Amino acid sequence: MADETHSHERPERVRPRRLEPDTTAYLLEVKTSLLESLGDDGDDTKSILLWNVLEELAPRIASAASDRHACEIVEVLVEHMSPRQLSFFVHKMEGYYSHLWTNRYSSHVLQRILSKVGAIVQAEVDGSLETTEDDDERSKNVPTMATLIVAMCTEVKDEWITLVNDVSASHVLRGVLCALAGRAPVAEKRGKKGKHGAVKFENLPKKR
Fold it and tell me: Which of 83, 134, 162, 202 is the most exposed place for a label (fewest CB within 10 A)?
């Protein structure tokens, strides 16, 4: 009986190490360089810059996503990543999802990523995913986004009830459901003074 009771307890959450201040400063420099490159140097420079920071940050991606100072910078970087760069980013989060779903900062990063997942998975399925040679080379050992989302859900499968009732994780769960349904969450403001956005759902465009 004791063993049966223990099997239903929530697994202990694995937390990433605290992010070093030097890494936060580095990310801020990268963000500035990225935004400056958007108008002048084209997609190639942006892609190289993002791959360089991803490989540099790889062991600390979960730490950066859940850091209150770095998370907003990470969201800016995520917004400009290619599908394979996003897959690389998600792959490096594995092992920390229970923490990342429930952390107030990383949950926003995950929602940002999940808003892009449906379109990426659809492109993987129909063979229309656009990649560069650099993308293919640097992400050659990274699974597809579809596989990564399944791995994410599997990692937290024993915590669904807890996550549904968590103020941060419940929003991530909504993002997962939207992605699985092929819909992207779209934030809308509620009134002039509303702090939080309502969410409507838009169907992803169907391939003709």
Answer: 202
> How many domains would you assign to the chain?
1
Alpha helices in 80-202 (DSSP H): 83-91, 97-102, 106-126, 133-138, 145-155, 160-164, 169-180
Radius of gyration of the chain (CA): 18
CA–CA separation, 94 vs 152, rounded Å?
A: 7
Q: Is residue 13 part of a domain?
A: no
State the residue range of the domain holding 55.
21-201
Q: Is the pTM of this model over 0.90?
A: no
pLDDT reported for residue 156: 96
Residue 184: count of CB within 10 angstroms of its CB:
18
Average pLDDT of every residue of the chain: 85
